[in-house]
């Protein structure tokens, strides 16, 4: 098992994180599968214009294809910034908001 193949398998296992609009069935195994197959998708003549990637969009691996996708990178960046905002919350403004939440609704001025 090569490191590249291991990386591809990990990406397939973590595909639920990549797209917020798609939901997958839960994995029942923790480790890498014992038996698996790797192949190349060969497009038919019917989806020549609609369902295929151009030569420029085709990459050597699934990982490089996902890194090159602009919509996915925008989603990753947005989620990263959201997490950073949550983790770095602090200071005077954060404390004031917390105190305001603790007060009963009739006590707000």
From TrEMBL:
Coarse class of the protein's main subcellular location: nucleus
One Gene Ontology MF term: RNA binding
One Pfam family, short name: Fcf2
Keyword Nucleus: yes
Keyword set, alphabetical order: Nucleus
GO cellular component: nucleolus
GO biological process, alphabetically ordered: RNA processing
Compartments in which it is found: Nucleus, Nucleolus
Domain Fcf2 pre-rRNA processing C-terminal: residue ranges: 1-79
Keyword Cytoplasm: no
InterPro entries: Fcf2/DNTTIP2, Fcf2_C
Protein name: Fcf2 pre-rRNA processing C-terminal domain-containing protein
Species annotation: Ceratopteris richardii (Triangle waterfern)
